[in-house]
Amino acid sequence: MLGEHVRNIRKKRGITLKELAEKTGLSIGYISQIERDLTDPSLSTLRKLSAALDIPTYLFMGGESSTGLTTRQADMLILSQPNSNVRYHLLTPMPNGNFVPQSLVIRFELEPHCKDGDLPVIHPSEEILLLEQGQLDVLVESKTTRLNAGDTTVVQSNLPHIVSNPGDITAVGLAVFTPAIWFPNNRRSFNRGGET
Asked: Quick one: which H or E segment has residue 147?
């Protein structure tokens, strides 16, 4: 149930009802009703809760998250940006009330002659990129590094960066974020399997 999921994540993070209320602008009583499944929160409320708990809103909108530590290919969450030619496959289990991964591993696919976004992104995690196929240009601040298949690079935390594929084939690789980031405050918008 949604309420139990909210409560488990809140407690796992060591956040009190009062602190969650202060972070979200919602009343303690209302959050308590949500946690006891006495009311159905609006999408706006779910967004406030997800931002305060540092998890993506979609975790509250779909089926229950797996509690296992193994992610099967058929169960992988695929994220994509609207009007973009990049796909992300989450290889790390999603956070749930029992487990919050400390690292996030994503397999990315970037179409030829495309960028992973219009604007550079900044996040508080270190990002390791390992390119398995194709070419990748990684622009960090004003310096571009060209990766070929088998190459790796590290993007230090809090530096603006953007990735592009200058080649004629899809660039495929892995991105490892430490500590894990779960996208609630990221500039990019994600969806589940292409749905809005």
From this structure: strand 143-148
Q: How many helices (H) and strands (E) does the chain have?
A: 5, 11
80 or 123, greater pLDDT: 123
Q: What is the pLDDT of residues 88-110, one digit of tens each?
A: 888 888 776 677 788 889 899 99
Domains and CATH numbers, the chain: 2-61 (1.10.260.40), 73-192 (2.60.120.10)
The CB-based long-range contact list for 77-84 (8 Å cut-off, 24+ gap) reads 77/192, 77/193, 78/192, 78/193, 78/194, 79/190, 79/191, 79/192, 80/190, 80/191, 80/194, 81/116, 81/117, 81/188, 81/189, 81/190, 82/189, 82/191, 82/196, 84/114, 84/116, 84/117
